[in-house]
Write a structure and sequence with these properties.
332 residues, mainly alpha, 3-stranded parallel β-sheet, 13 helices, globular, binds tryptophanyl-5'AMP, ATP-binding, ligase, EC 6.1.1.2, aa-tRNA-synth_I_CS, tryptophan-tRNA ligase activity
Length: 332
């Protein structure tokens, strides 16, 4: 079976709708035909300051949310990155074949470090994409389902895989990103030309899966829309309306064309009301499923440690081969 791998950071109490529609939703059906590895990159999380207690709590919250959306730990390997030391070990080797300039061209790093200033930017943030490459290459993954903002990191991963293979002999699978065009970028509700993001400036622009559905409904209803009153999908002229249509269509299974027709007469108000309703219908059972998993943290931890064991079985084989290829003396 071809392998699929992806990860989501435990840096907020809740995943947001961008995470879900851009990435997580694809993870579920991919479990059927693929050998799936899904993980929580806590080592990526500490590239910016984290409160240790919160990080631990959010790691469990992330696991509970992944189970609740339908990741099945019997069919998928679900684990926490720091439980598998091979990620850090491979990342060191990859650091040594990555150009300084090449890493410096990563736009996410440039944006984040520009915001924080060079003195408060950790070196970990700079090497973050190389750790991500290690995550992917360790499992010889074929497919990596992510949103648009990870595309450049995937390109780097492919370059590093090809470079290593050319220099030391074929060791890695060169992975493909799977990015679903319509949902690759879910936009902020208040600034619909910017991506929805947990670090966004205005919390009203973000729909968190675990927020009170009443709060989320309100956020949908106060979403910034566009001039005019025609409900039509048009990213350039009507970014706000297009974003709502995308969200509604993804959660309701109705096509954009169907929605345009349905709300042709009613204007933006009807579209917002219906979208709020569809969203509530989706998050209400999800929230209670998450609560169910959180009620038994010991069982959650068991699921994660079984996952880590399975992950290590694959990761250690890859790392061993890599160490041999680069000329490290076997440790006997
Ligand atoms: P993270 O935790 O920021 O986001 C998780 C996933 O959500 C997608 N995403 C979006 N998709 C559409 N619209 C949005 N507004 C939106 N916001 C976020 C992201 O593209 C991502 O797929 N570096 C990764 C985590 C990671 C990883 C990996 C992923 C670490 N190692 C190996 C894949 C493979 C990240 O920070 O994602």
């Amino acid at each position: 079976k071809p392998r699929v791998l992806s990860g989501i950071q435990p840096t907020a109490d809740s995943f947001h709708l961008g995470n879900y529609l851009g990435a997580l939703r694809q993870w579920v059906p991919l479990q059927d035909e693929h050998d799936a590895f899904y993980f929580i990159p806590d080592m990526h999380a500490i590239t910016v300051p984290q409160d240790p207690k919160l990080l631990r709590k959010r790691t469990r919250l992330a696991a509970a949310q992944l189970l609740a959306i339908g990741i099945d730990p019997e069919r998928s390997t679900l684990f926490v990155q720091s439980h598998v030391p091979e990620h850090a070990e491979l990342s060191w080797v990859l650091n040594c074949i990555t150009g300084f300039g090449e890493a410096g061209r990563m736009t996410q790093f440039k944006d984040k470090s520009a915001k924080q200033g060079a003195e408060s930017t950790g070196v970990g943030l700079f090497t973050y994409p190389i750790l991500m490459a290690a995550d992917i290459l360790l499992y010889r993954s074929h497919l990596v389902p992510v949103g648009e903002d990870q595309r450049q990191h995937l390109e780097l991963t492919r370059d590093l895989a090809q470079r290593f293979n050319a220099r030391y002999g074929k060791s890695f699978v060169v992975p493909e990103a799977t990015i679903i065009k319509e949902f690759a970028k879910v936009y902020d509700l208040q600034e619909p030309t910017k991506k929805m993001s947990k670090s966004g400036d205005n919390p009203k622009g973000v729909i968190n899966l675990l927020d009170d559905p009443k709060v989320s409904a309100k956020r949908i209803k106060s979403a910034v829309t566009d001039t005019g009153s025609e409900v039509r999908f048009d990213r350039a002229e009507k970014p706000g309306v297009s974003n709502l249509l995308t969200i509604n269509s993804a959660l309701s299974g109705r096509s954009i064309a169907e929605l345009e027709q349905r709300f042709a007469g009613g204007g933006y108000g009807d579209l917002k009301g219906d979208t709020a309703e569809v969203l509530t219908g989706f998050v209400t059972p999800l929230r209670s499923a998450v609560d169910g998993y959180l009620a038994d943290p010991a069982e959650l931890d068991r699921v994660l440690s079984r996952g880590a064991e399975r992950a290590r079985a694959v990761a250690s084989g890859t790392l061993k081969r890599v160490y041999d290829r680069v000329g490290f003396l076997a440790s006997g």
